[in-house]
Write a structure and sequence with these properties.
Strand 9 and strand 10 form a beta hairpin. It contains eight helices and 33 strands. It is mainly beta. The two termini are 41 Å apart. The longest helix has 17 residues. It is globular, with a radius of gyration of 25 Å. The chain has a domain of 105 residues: Photosystem II 12 kDa extrinsic protein (DNA polymerase, domain 1, Orthogonal Bundle), CATH 1.10.150.
Amino acid sequence: MPVNKKMKRVLWVLVLLLLVKSQYTAGQTTDSTEVLEKTVEYAVEAFDPESTLNAEELAEYLQLLAQQPININRAGIDELIKVPGINFKMAQGIVEYRKKKPFETVRELVNVKGIGAATLAKVSPYITVGSSGAVQKALLMSANYWNQKAKLEHITRFQTVLEEQAGYETGGSYRGDPYKVYHRTSYTTEHASLNLTLEKDPGETWNAPVGYDFSSFHVAVKDVGKVKQLVFGDYSLSFGQGLVLWNGGAFGKGNDVINAVSRSERGLRSYRSTLETAFQRGVAVTLGETYETTLFFSSKNETASIVSGDTIRFPSSTGLHRTSTEIERRYNAPVTMYGGRFRWKLGTGWIGVTGFGFQSDKYILPGTALSNQYDFEGKELHVFGLDYSWFWQTVALSGEIGRSKNGALAWVQTAQWIMSEQTEFSLGIRSYAKDYQNPFASGFAESSGQVNEFGIYTGLAHRFSRDFLIRMYFDQYQFPFARFGTTQSTKGYDWLIYSEYIVNRSTQLNFLARYEQKEDDRDELQADGREYSVLDPQTRWSARTDFVHQLLKNVRIRFRIEYVNYEDFDQNDSGWEIYQDVRWNVNKKLQIDARLSYFDTDSYDSRIYQYENDVLYALSNPVLSGLGQRSYVLIKYSPIKAMDLWFKYDISIYENEQTVGSGNDLIQGNSRSRATVQIRYSF
């Protein structure tokens, strides 16, 4: 079918959705679904569009949190602040309120000082009300105890690019077919969890029904007496402020300007995602309440590039094994990790100590770039750290210091001040030595890895009224040693302003502006005939406006326009994007999302990225550059209570282009389309 006909069909879908007055019973999307999608979108947009791995893990964490909400009658302050939208002052208020009487409904939260209807709507997907009583040992032998709130879920997903790509042609480099296949079966209760995840990426080989390139399994129990968590199989660890050990993503610099610099510890969690390096495999346990202890041991095979013989680079994070070269090095690097954490919970916070050891079966060499000069080299690595959090009335302080085997230090100190019910302020100072060696850190930073950086971050949020708020941050930083792509010390800064205005019950306006300036070096021929390295600023700024309107009881539309400008010493590029999307809740069983985008950018440097709704547990955050259009249709249908079906079709069309992509992903033609089908059974 010609590309223009495909676009016309998508356009007709949008027009029909905007004009139709449904004759069906209106089945509005639940508030919790809307809030979850909004939280995931904000989280994803804080990440580099070229690296969605950690964003995917964070999105799954939020979705799992919504499936297994936190009990506000039992959770401590450390657990309550994990909920997006609950700050430490609100958490303190919740604990004080339930001392007088337990919460009977979630809506009762509005009786806690500082929590209004807007906050309740934001946090409601992630919290629940349950028993506040202690676990009784006699129940441990009861089947009913282990099956409380039982849920069995199975998901199967198939996804593929519809056009033929160079890597799959005769003589191409990809050894497998172009399909992404994903299966997950999980059984969760209030005190137990079992999970099996199977996946193969496009281009990877497989022999159905076994032989998947990646598999993940765990058996876990939680909140059983003094055992808070016990996991056999795959698990993740996220402690302190992330300077010693943190798996997966965390909220970064985005419109949540207050909580951006401070991590909310997740501790030990069972793992069920598909990121092939963001977890440990073995056994781990967390015990105790006031004196909380976590111990873990992990042994698994990673994938690493071979330098020569038994010498490798540090294991990669892509998890892709498609070509002969990738297959040859698949899981070729056995590694072992062990360690623990002790946390002493005080009435006003906690103090924690974390340490781990890492051993590789092969010798690890750093990269050859100047920025890799101080990276880890060897077979063994040890890192230790001390962290704390302290809450006092309207002020919260938290920080961590880490020390790697070579003696290098990394530290971060944050402060949050609730100045009034309308105004909040945050401050973060970070200092990471150029030779701090810890590939498992994920603290707040401008660059990837907690190394070679000093910065000061300030954030301010103010609500002028129930309907209007504004948030902003300013972050300035310096890289004392050469970062990737440079040969000397550089510095930079960036800021963001976000505003949200609720016009009425059915209309909302959002505005976001970002600006970033970062130094880059280049060689310049001087009058004496020699080339010298000089510093020039690179600037990138963007501004966008969102208009969200509930057109009908069961039809919501959103319109966005965005402009981007990029400039350096010899380049000044710009780009823009405009899109219209619609959500139509046809009835309680059928929901349709559709979007049509137009974009025009001068180069990849002025690219624009946009978050898209996708099937459950998947993430779509495409990068748009060049001249073209992008559209998608996402259909969710629930024929019976225990079954959900999704279908998504998306297409990007590039004007004045003869090919799309490059290398093994090259497509002859000016369009790239993809289809996704997913089914979920849930009992």
